[in-house]
Amino acid sequence: MSRPISALTIAGSDSGGGAGIQADLKTFAAHGVHGLSAIAALTAQHTRGVTAVHVPPVAFLRAQVDACFEDFDIGAVKLGMLASAEVIHAVADALQAHRPPHVVLDPVMVATSGARLLEADALDALRTRLLPMATVLTPNTPEAELLLGRKITDGAAADEAAQALRALGAGSVLLKGGHLDEGDRVVDRYADATTSTRWQQPRMDVDGHGTGCTLASAIAANLCLGHSPVDACAAAIAYVHDALLRGYAPGRGAVRVLDHF
Ligand code: PLP
């Protein structure tokens, strides 16, 4: 019997179970894809915020990544919270050594709660080392602004930003529109070398947690299943929308986590 394809997440752990590695593994499972994880950072976290962050030694992160590549057929790698420039360089070195077919880069910087998940001096390393390896880059508007060094104030600026991010070296870009005010709808913009498209949905009045992590890992799962980047993005957007509609608030905070199944 041939081995199934696995997806690997290299990201942060959320002790509250709503985002990060925990969301990624649930997403992989919901897509019928075997999930692997290399934990780049640990957060002590609940539905009201992040109370502490611990970054294990990068040699141990590399050992986790190497162990995964030594034994599994990895169809796609999802990158989430990487915490520091040192971690980013270690991940870039590991990906250069193992050359996975696809990389989905969620350039996690600041949590919705306001907690910093990437040190300020790490932006350059993210832009120069990881962005060119990405099959799909999935920034939200504030992350795209930091990567480009300019404000995105309206839909036309967002269209331009998606192209400009691709010009920095990503194979394709899914610029998430949730933070941009475009009336009662949310517009996600996609651009690759030959296609640009957008998906619109009515804005949902919910305080969701783990949506970005889930979107990126759903794209990775769909790439593992053989979908093209644009089809993987379309399927992942629909998956997150449905999972958020069914979402629930498991803690004392108002935030809702997704129902992945
Ligand atoms: N915790 C971890 C480990 C994460 O990776 C992320 C986002 O990527 C978050 C928290 C923040 O999630 P949100 O902004 O959806 O609340």
TrEMBL record:
**What is the superkingdom listed in this entry's lineage?**
Bacteria
Identify the Pfam families for this entry. Phos_pyr_kin
Keyword Nucleotide-binding appears in the UniProt entry? no
Give every Pyridoxamine kinase/Phosphomethylpyrimidine kinase domain span: 14-255
InterPro entries listed in its UniProt record: HMP/HMP-P_kinase_dom, PM/HMP-P_kinase-1, Ribokinase-like
* Pathway it works in: Cofactor biosynthesis; thiamine diphosphate biosynthesis
Q: Which CDD domains match?
A: HMPP_kinase
UniProt keywords (A-Z) are:
Kinase, Transferase
Which residues, if any, are the signal sequence? none
Name the chain's protein.
Answer: hydroxymethylpyrimidine kinase
- Documented EC number(s): 2.7.1.49
Gene Ontology MF, one: kinase activity
Whether Nucleotidyltransferase counts among this entry's keywords is no
